[in-house]
TrEMBL record:
Gene3D superfamilies: YhbY-like (3.30.110.60). Keywords: RNA-binding. It comes from Sediminibacillus dalangtanensis. PROSITE patterns: CRM. It comes from the Bacteria. InterPro entries: RNA-binding_CRM (IPR001890), RNA-binding_domain (IPR051925), RNA-binding_YhbY (IPR017924), YhbY-like_sf (IPR035920). Residues 1-96 form the CRM domain. This is Ribosome assembly RNA-binding protein YhbY. Pfam families: CRS1_YhbY.
Amino acid sequence: MLTGKQKRYLRSQAHHLNPIFQVGKTGVNENMITQVGEALEKRELIKVSILQNCMEDKGNVAEELAEGTEAEIVQIIGNIIVLYKESEENKQIVLP
């Protein structure tokens, strides 16, 4: 689990990032979870945007992605989810 201090730090790191995944009306599926997992391994910190036509609640979408990829939800702001997972091979972010 991340501490408040670590989440603040990650939010500041994520501020300039652009979302690299979009969740649409089909919601979250296995393929998306796999791709998000691979992106997290490469980047550690990513943003996912939820489109207007997504039928699922954004909290549920965030939970599904976090559980499927074993990542931490850093923040849900508007229709953007920020996810963090420590990389095993490409560690770049040093948490405070």
